Amino acid sequence: SLTIGIVGLPNVGKSTLFNALTKNDVLAANYPFATIEPNVGVVGVPDPRLARLAEVFGSQKIIPATVSFVDIAGIVRGASEGQGLGNKFLANIRESDAICQVIRVFTDPDVVHVEGKVDPADDIETINTELVLADMQTLEKAIPRLEKESRKDKDRKVLHDAAVAAQEVLNTGKTLFAAGVDPEPLRELTLLTTKPFLYVFNVDADELANTAQLDELRALVAPAEAIFLDAQTESELIELPAEEAAELLASIGQDEPGLDQLAQVGFRTLGLQTYLTAGPKESRAWTIPVGATAPEAAGVIHTDFQRGFIKAEIVGFDQLMEAGSMAAAKTKGWVRIEGKEYVMQDGDVVEFRFNV
Ligand code: GDP
């Protein structure tokens, strides 16, 4: 499954955030015998629609979609030259499908900042520079080889030209993601900066309501998505019973934990969406790539469902709730029959028909 690598300079709150994430680990909660990698946190993607479906269908269980985070320790200035844990660090990022940078905004004289001062723009720049330099090295090695190959084989010219164009972008200091470069033709080179980025700003709890400051930070990373949270508070929230957690959240002016937002935004950043199924046993969100067709969606439940796909009976979540039950939705003519070409939409509640 797809993973998001968590990166950031030392002492920005990565471990604090990651530990909070792993306390939320749905593998640990639901699959007691699953092998849990120490540096991977699998968290549920909160979806309030599931509880409402469970009510309508009398489901015994709710199973949310999940998103996996990998803790990638060790970036410092000079990582692209093998400083610190440089090479291992870069290899770990290469294996991730998206990059989540944690940035320190909180002020705490007791926590040393590696660069001597809290400066979010500078920290973003430091990490970007290491990743850009690593990609430039990859391209410098690849381009002469691709040039030779493309003289004999026209197909290789597509990759060669994309590589040269990417090199020009990187020379300006921009990541390929920020420049909007299409990752597809470059895929073979497993570049780092074509991956989608998202940003977690670790701010003091009492700054979470300072919208002027948050807007300034958001502008630093746009069009990438930004999440604002206080890692320390998040790690406390996770230990509290629901009622006390709600009180603590309210006391810092928030209506949902930052970790929930992170799971939702991370899921979206990976290019994923869900569709829903419901019955007396469970209400469940299934993960598909944006743009998946009905048979592909069926295949996520079971490969036989995809192979034997006949049709999908689909009703939009909001219409289903308005009707009050599947039977009522059918009577109203709101349950559509969709075929092989149908592209799944967010909020589709689905029953597949298939041959076995
Ligand atoms: P990492 O090196 O990026 O993994 O950072 P850690 O999570 O180990 O945090 C470094 C130090 O900063 C620890 O002493 C944390 O308790 C502290 N810290 C982490 N997040 C926050 C925060 O949101 N506010 C404050 N004041 N301290 C924090």
UniProtKB/TrEMBL annotation:
ATP binds at residues 11-16. Keywords: ATP-binding, Magnesium, Metal-binding, Nucleotide-binding. GO terms for molecular function: ATP binding; ATP hydrolysis activity; GTP binding; metal ion binding; ribosomal large subunit binding. The gene is ychF. Residues 2-249 form the OBG-type G domain. Residues 271-354 form the TGS domain. InterPro entries: ATPase_YchF/OLA1, Beta-grasp_dom_sf, G_OBG, GTP-bd, P-loop_NTPase, TGS, TGS-like, TGS-like_dom_sf. One of its GO terms (cellular component) is cytoplasm. The keyword Chaperone does not apply. Its cofactor is Mg(2+). ATPase that binds to both the 70S ribosome and the 50S ribosomal subunit in a nucleotide-independent manner. Belongs to the TRAFAC class OBG-HflX-like GTPase superfamily. OBG GTPase family. YchF/OLA1 subfamily. It comes from Modestobacter versicolor. The keyword Nuclease does not apply. This is Ribosome-binding ATPase YchF.
